[in-house]
Specification:
By secondary structure, the protein is an alpha/beta fold. The chain has two domains: about 1-70 and about 85-150 and about 250-320, FAD/NAD(P)-binding domain (3-Layer(bba) Sandwich), CATH 3.50.50.60; about 155-245, 2-Layer Sandwich (D-Amino Acid Oxidase, Chain A, domain 2), CATH 3.30.9. About 25% of the residues lie in helices and about 30% in strands. It contains eight helices and 20 strands. A seven-stranded mixed beta sheet has the order 7-6-15-16-17-14-18. The protein has a six-stranded mixed beta sheet with strand order 9-3-2-13-20-19, with helices on both faces. Strand 2, helix 1 and strand 3 form a beta-alpha-beta unit. About 45% of the residues are buried. The chain binds flavin-adenine dinucleotide. Flavin-adenine dinucleotide binds next to helix 1, strand 3, strand 14, strand 17 and strand 18. Flavin-adenine dinucleotide binds near residues 35, 46, 244 and 268.
Length: about 325
């Protein structure tokens, strides 16, 4: 059996940020992920400047190239609010692999199934022993399932369901667009351009109200495509989207339930996406870094002050333009 200081389960932004913080502090870390990197992660790939800054990530250091989104357009009932707030559009397939490699941690391709408490530590699938285990496995995280599920951290009413597709297509519109509450949809449609001829299109909503209304997310996917085709931003055959579910941040009682002894939850495993836009990358990075600091330096691990909404970060972008340009 391999002995390490920390096993991180999941190599998305939360796991990569945590691994980065731990390796910098000299700990022996292994990251286990069921996917082979680079791997596709369904996501709009909008990263706020503040999220990139938390990781000390500069445009010049990023080998894949990112697209600066200069303006966001929020649509509601035919009204349009343009917001000039420069933020970053990346492709998750590139971004996640880059962050993981940059962390300097050992990455092992492995689907985690069982995590047992033994002595003062944890044994993962009978192959790794560590004092600390970090649950960074997203919505399906086995650390959450084993040690945290009974605590009721993720609220059913805050579950998001989404369909999304990122595909090669000429970029005909350089800004980012969100259409809210189209035909009673309890969420929004989005269009997000990427660098080098890719676009990202999706629809995401609260699952419970959608189900109560006996509405179908697929119907909204078709409406979204029709809208983009009518605008002339998309044409030709559009491949099938993928589906994913995750959780927005609850209002009460969150911090006390993200650490149990030597088990920590970070990112989507804890359900930390913002309540207005479902933005989760920033919280994934921030929680990963905080967990690393708490593990290595022995401090508290709390997420109480993580932003619950995205709009303040977008508004700050109005005054603080491209920080590193
Ligand atoms: C359609 C969609 C659009 C989104 N758009 C945005 C956006 O534009 N901006 C934004 O900030 N947020 C967005 N989000 C939210 C964002 O994608 C997540 O909050 C973010 O990915 C969370 O990162 P994470 O590291 O916690 O989890 P993930 O990125 O999900 O990583 C979890 C990792 O754990 C691995 N794993 C899972 N189970 C196991 C196991 N048993 N064993 C080993 N490994 C395992 C997985 O393979 C995966 O690599 C979007 C989400 C969706 C679904």
């Amino acid at each position: 059996m391999r002995r390490v200081d920390v096993v991180v389960v999941g190599g998305g932004p939360a796991g990569a940020a945590c691994a980065t913080g731990l390796v910098r502090r000299g700990l022996d870390v292994v990251v286990l992920d069921r996917a082979r990197f680079p791997r596709v992660k369904l996501c709009g790939g909008l990263v706020t400047q503040e999220a990139a800054a938390a990781l000390g990530l500069h445009e010049a250091d990023y080998p894949h190239g990112w697209l600066w989104i200069d303006r966001f357009h929020f649509h509601w009932r035919g009204l349009r609010l343009p917001l000039p707030s420069p933020q970053i559009s990346i492709r998750r397939v590139e971004f996640d692999a880059f962050l993981l490699q940059r962390s300097g941690a050992e990455l092992v391709h492995h689907r985690v199934q069982t995590i047992e408490r033994q002595g003062g530590g944890y044994v993962v699938d009978g192959q790794w022993r560590a004092d600390v285990v970090v649950g960074a496995g997203g919505t399906a995280c086995p650390v959450y399932r084993t040690f945290f599920r009974e605590l009721g951290l993720r609220e059913k009413g805050l579950q998001i369901t989404a369909l999304e597709l990122e595909f090669a297509h000429e970029v005909r519109e350089r800004d980012c667009h969100f259409w809210f509450f189209e035909e009673g949809f309890p969420g929004y449609y989005w269009y997000i351009p990427k660098a080098a001829g890719w676009v990202n299109v999706g629809v995401g909503a609260l699952a419970e109200p959608l189900k109560r209304a006996q509405d179908s997310i697929w119907r909204h996917w078709q409406r979204c495509l029709a809208k983009l085709q009518a605008l002339g931003w998309l044409d030709g055959e559009v491949p099938q989207p993928g589906g994913h579910t995750y959780y927005l941040m609850g209002l009460m009682g969150r911090p006390a339930r993200v650490r149990r002894d030597g088990a920590y939850l970070v990112g989507d495993a804890a359900g930390l996406a913002t309540r207005d836009l479902g933005e989760g990358i920033r919280a994934a990075i921030e929680s990963g870094l905080r967990a690393a600091a708490a593990i290595a330096d022995g401090g508290d691990y709390q997420l109480d002050d993580l932003p619950r909404t995205s709009w303040p970060a977008l508004l700050r972008g109005l005054v603080r333009r491209r920080w590193w340009a």
